[in-house]
Amino acid sequence: MNGFKDFLAASALGAVMVASAVTATTTVASADTVCNRYNECWTTHERYNNYPSSLSIQFHNDSWRRHHRHGYQWRADPQDDHGYYDHGQWNKFDQNGNDRQNQDGDHH
């Protein structure tokens, strides 16, 4: 009977160690809220640095969004967040991270 108790104790200890290892290696997916000068906001998973300067982009942490629901135009979060909103329109960066609108010459 004592061997069975030792087995249970070892099994419980092993389960705790496995759970701790899984918890330690699990990363929480974080996202930032991005807002432009027109109070259009959306979520991004990276802080890109190639937004048009005319948009006065500001980054906020995830908790900011929960406290600022009103007074902003919350845009749909794009599947591919390599871009930005400008007057309600989504503008993608090209594969090199450049602003496609500025290349075309028809940016606002």
Describe this protein's structure.
This protein has 108 residues and is of the alpha+beta class. It has a domain at 32-104. It is built from 3 helices and 6 strands, in the order H-E-E-E-H-E-E-E-H. It has helices spanning 2-25, 62-67, 100-104, and strands spanning 32-35, 40-44, 58-60, 73-74, 83-86, 89-92. The strands form 2 sheets. A 4-stranded mixed sheet has the order 3-1-2-4. It has a two-stranded antiparallel ribbon with strand order 5-6.
Give the rounded overall mean pLDDT: 77
Beta strand %: 15-25%
Shape: elongated
Poorly predicted regions are 16-28, 103-108
Give the termini distance in whole angstroms.
80 Å
Helix count, DSSP H or I runs of 4 or more residues: 3
Structural class: alpha+beta
Share of helical residues: 25-40%
Largest sheet: 4 strands, mixed
Rg over alpha carbons = 23 Å
Strand numbers in spatial order across the main sheet? 3-1-2-4
User: How would you name the oligomeric state of the polypeptide chains in this document?
Assistant: single chain
**Strand runs, count:** 6
Q: How would you spell out the order of helices and strands? A: HEEEHEEEH
Main features:
108 residues, alpha+beta, four-stranded mixed sheet, two-stranded antiparallel ribbon, 3 helices, 32% helix
